[in-house]
Request: fold
Amino acid sequence: MKTISNITKGIKNIRSVLYYKQINILPRLLRNYIFAFFRINENVPAPLELQIEVSSLCNLRCEMCHIASRAPSDQTKQITTDQFRTIIGHSSPLMRVAFIGLGEVFTNKDLFQFFIHLNRQNISLFFYTNGMLLLDKNIDALIRNDVKEFGVSFESAIPENFEKIRKGAKFSTIVNNIKKVRERYEEANKQIEISFGSVLLEKSIQEPENLFSIIDIANDLSVSLVNFANVANIKESGLDKYYSDATENAKLDKLFARLQEYADIKNTRIRLPKTSLSQGECRLPWVAAFVSVEGEVLPCCALMELGDHDEMVSLYSLGNLIHQPLSEIWNSKKAIDFRRRLSSSEPYECCRKCSYYTGVL
Ligand SMILES: C[S@@+](CC[C@H](N)C(=O)[O-])C[C@H]1O[C@@H](n2cnc3c(N)ncnc32)[C@H](O)[C@@H]1O
Ligand code: SF4
Ligand code: SF4
Reply:
């Protein structure tokens, strides 16, 4: 049963990222999922999705984010247009790029050039933003370059709680910005799919009105999906006890069931993490590559939230995409070793504490 559900999940993932013009690379995409599924660690086809951290600069300081622990000189880095072109060229062919990592996408001053470059190459784009910098000129650039989807992060829709978690943010500004995006896309007669990324914190489990309020506002703003997720290391959010203690776990189950019921009534699509821990669930190092703001290729984006930036890079970097093509990096000794460990009962330390590994992200 689990096998069938994994295959179905894989096919859904593929469909969600596939556009008709890219149908010719479907067999390659399937190969990545097959290698991931059967845990074949060598000669893995280069991924068709690249996750890029385009800026390590951020206008906020959210309570659960590791950005503040980076050295000050690491909090102002930006990928330049030349570096971006090299990274994309070194990874071609690509089907999808996601701007993910620590930092706020809209602080990168070359961002519009990246949109143009991806659009010309027919590579689809997804990114997460904190929503504060969805200014007119940025919305115009999204429309001009036919960006079809992005996510906004929301941990509560109760303004004072939201602003306590997302330090430096103004709740009303973000809501108004989302409304403006909708209006401007409608005026341009174009479609935009906006989803919410919502990290679960102990406070939101203890005061569930924070979570219900997100469903309400998602409904008001015609958001396509609310993706509730655990932080990369659940010990840090304090949610580990809800997984290790049977009584607390039953509470979590009950809460998620109520949330799902409420979302169904509101006709709002939500995704919730699993409420039981498993082992060895992660397949990211087979299907997508993460590139840090310095061009370092890492097995996944979760590493940025799992420890000190420099330490993660020095321990787990597989190579640098500004200086080498992805084909040299993706099946390097280090990459094969990382996948082998992840497939074994002795994964690296980073994986052992990761919510992806235990299947609860
Ligand atoms: C790091 S942010 C970067 C994009 C943008 N600045 C934002 O906040 O949406 C990407 C996503 O990671 C989430 N995030 C923050 N801290 C996290 C953590 N410790 N573990 C996992 N995800 C985290 C954020 O809530 C956000 O949805
Ligand atoms: S979660 Fe996003 S907005 Fe918040 S501090 Fe981290 S990078 Fe900045
Ligand atoms: S288990 Fe976590 S740390 Fe390990 S590769 Fe997967 S996402 Fe990264």
Summary: The chain has a mean pLDDT of 93. The first strand starts at residue 49 and ends at 52. The pocket of iron/sulfur cluster (ligand 3) is lined by residues 282, 284-285, 299-300, 302-303, 306, 342, 350-351, 354, 356-357 (CB under 6 Å).
